[in-house]
UniProtKB/TrEMBL annotation:
<dbReference type="GO" id="GO:0015112">
    <property type="term" value="F:nitrate transmembrane transporter activity"/>
</dbReference>
<comment type="similarity">
    <text>Belongs to the NAR2 family.</text>
</comment>
<keyword id="KW-0472">Membrane</keyword>
<keyword id="KW-0732">Signal</keyword>
<dbReference type="GO" id="GO:0010167">
    <property type="term" value="P:response to nitrate"/>
</dbReference>
<dbReference type="GO" id="GO:0042128">
    <property type="term" value="P:nitrate assimilation"/>
</dbReference>
<keyword id="KW-1003">Cell membrane</keyword>
<dbReference type="GO" id="GO:0005886">
    <property type="term" value="C:plasma membrane"/>
</dbReference>
<dbReference type="InterPro" id="IPR016605">
    <property type="entry name" value="Transptr_NO3_Nar2"/>
</dbReference>
<comment type="function">
    <text>Involved in nitrate transport.</text>
</comment>
<keyword id="KW-0812">Transmembrane</keyword>
<keyword id="KW-0534">Nitrate assimilation</keyword>
<dbReference type="Pfam" id="PF16974">
    <property type="entry name" value="NAR2"/>
</dbReference>
<protein>
    <recommendedName>
        <fullName>High-affinity nitrate transporter</fullName>
    </recommendedName>
</protein>
<keyword id="KW-1133">Transmembrane helix</keyword>
<feature type="transmembrane region" description="Helical">
    <location>
        <begin position="174"/>
        <end position="197"/>
    </location>
</feature>
<feature type="signal peptide">
    <location>
        <begin position="1"/>
        <end position="22"/>
    </location>
</feature>
Amino acid sequence: METHPSLLLLLVLSCFATASYAHNVHLSALNQSLIVSTSTTPGEVLKAGVDQVNISWSYNQSFPAGTDTNYTTVEVKLCYAPVSQAGRDDRKTDDALDNDKTCPFDITEAPYKRSNNSFVWTVPQDTPTATYFVRIFAIYNKHEKGYGQSTDALKTTSLFQVDGIVSEEKEVSAALPAFGGSFGYGYAWLLMLFLVYI
Ligand SMILES: *[C@@H]1O[C@H](CO)[C@@H](O)[C@H](O)[C@H]1NC(C)=O
Ligand SMILES: *[C@@H]1O[C@H](CO)[C@@H](O)[C@H](O)[C@H]1NC(C)=O
Ligand SMILES: *[C@@H]1O[C@H](CO)[C@@H](O)[C@H](O)[C@H]1NC(C)=O
Ligand SMILES: *[C@@H]1O[C@H](CO)[C@@H](O)[C@H](O)[C@H]1NC(C)=O
Ligand SMILES: *[C@@H]1O[C@H](CO)[C@@H](O)[C@H](O)[C@H]1NC(C)=O
């Protein structure tokens, strides 16, 4: 059986359409509709692999009713504070979330609930020594719709430090998955389609 070329074209186009739609989100376009806090005390230094942080979040009820009706899940991420981004292109902030390298570490994912959310997180052993905060994205249909963070807009308050044991070399490979993202899957898809076609 032969694959009809127009069907193939349609598949390829739909693949790109999905990729560009899912990946054009800017942080500044999201509602900062979540309130996020951590149990850390100012200046606290957490030992990687040992210490725990209790992360709590809820919906900011002063947002217009309905803002969160479509939220389905939350993604909790560990993010570099500006002091640990200085001189590091591989940690650079970009308002376009595709290119943003502020929050390369996934902490957890959970179903969206308006209130009473918390997660006790043990700082993983391979966490680089740096200063951090936590950001949480509210997701609908794989798209970020809202967010909140455990620090202020300038990212100076309520930061915490991690004392890691990772060498620079290991640290780079730990950060790599952040560059791939699901855009990489789009290309994998394309490649597969071509292989099937040949
Ligand atoms: C985490 O923090 C929340 C909110 O302050 C609290 O309700 C919860 O009991 C805490 N969990 C643990 C295990 O300490
Ligand atoms: C909740 O949202 C309101 C309205 O946008 C804002 O003024 C307020 O600072 C927010 N509260 C918190 C704790 O983020
Ligand atoms: C929720 O999703 C529906 C269907 O996609 C859309 O029409 C509506 O505008 C969304 N509401 C909000 C607040 O984003
Ligand atoms: C932000 O909230 C407003 C008001 O509820 C809503 O109209 C808008 O669609 C929301 N934006 C996003 C990106 O969900
Ligand atoms: C919050 O969660 C805790 C533990 O899951 C539960 O015992 C408590 O009843 C909840 N409180 C509210 C207000 O939902």
